[in-house]
Amino acid sequence: MDRLFYFGSNFKMHQTAAESAAFLRAVAHAANSNHQLFLIPPFTSLTALTPIKGDIWIGAQTMHEAEEGAYTGEISARMLSALGVDLVMLGHAERRQHFGETDAALRRKVRRALDHGLRVLLCVGETALEHECGASAETVVRQLKIALRDATTADLPRLLIAYEPVWSIGVGGTPAPMPDVIYAVGAVRGALRALFGAAGDLIPVFYGGSVDADNVGGYVQIEGINGAFVGRAAWTPEGFLNVFNRASTAKG
Ligand code: PEP
After folding, report:
1. What pLDDT does 3 receive?
2. pLDDT at 2
3. Is 29 labeled as catalytic in the residue annotation?
4. What residue ranges in 134-239 does DSSP mark as E strands?
5. Local structure of residue 200 (DSSP, 8 states)
6. Which of the following is catalytic: 35, 64, 92, 131?
């Protein structure tokens, strides 16, 4: 199992380029070799952040599956790669819900991103209905098996997974109870093993969903979890550092 601890935030549709750069400068001192920090700002902030990122990974929030073409408003893997971004997040629940991102499209996006040398942070998680009906494991296994269908063991060093129950993320979300996270992360780990054998254990898995300074310590100590992925509670440098410090202390 990869012992490195990961901590990062998706800014969603918040922060201008100048605000994102100020944010990065304010948290940069927390980066060191015991953990990997990452920030996933809007596209418009990427060029401001990549030249000053130091050891912090900078990620894009999505990309189009095609190499190029008549897709007005979209961004390609080649464009992201040329900007020097470290990763692309794919399959965030808001992309699946509001922009119709399907498992089949994610399969193509994952392959495209990997072909351009990008790390992929693949988000998986069940909806409230799937959770209520006891289908959490089935959902995350399906999402992983389809999206990672064309990934090979050679791609493993560039794969990262965020388990984010849809009912837990964003405004109105509630922190997932520990037993639910343990169960779903067990299913994620099982799917990664089914796909890649024992090498699948090396893929870092994060928990995301209403993480804050008070609950992060519990989540990051769950077996099979290698990091925390935080939205609202980490949208100020102070909040980011506060949650990060609590996570780091809990990890020891
Ligand atoms: C998210 O939406 O990916 C997320 C983790 O958000 P929050 O922490 O605000 O629930």
Report:
1. 67
2. 43
3. no
4. 159-163, 205-208, 227-230
5. G
6. 92
